[in-house]
Amino acid sequence: MPAKDLYHDRVRSALIKDGWRITRDTYQIKFKEIKLYADLAAETMFAAERDRKQIIVEVKSFLGASRVRDFEAAIGQYILYRLYLSQIFPEATVYLAINSDIYRSFFLKEAIEFVIKELNIQLIIVDIDREVIVRWINS
């Protein structure tokens, strides 16, 4: 099993504060002969519709030597997870959770916004210090 991201527990806490129930603290994605591990699986009830929404969350800290390299790796993981899950757990939505500081300093660059929009990447922006979700972005 892979190591947890540095911000894993803080994102987990933020999701719980936002009303999500964590169903798995490492989610195994098994597609044919491949096994991958996303950071979190969560669900919530929408009282008005009484319908469950389930999400799979990959947490990324972007603390490597190159944010572009970290971005490439994160997008690759995200796309694999989304593709495999579309076959084995199609009702789940995959999100990439990132720190609000990284969002402001890197993800708002025009070239990065272009990729997020074109690939329809779903983001959860988390204030890591306060452990709260500040924004959901559904491209």
UniProtKB/TrEMBL annotation:
Molecular functions (GO terms): nucleic acid binding
- SUPFAM superfamilies for this protein: Restriction endonuclease-like
Name recorded for this polypeptide:
XisH family protein
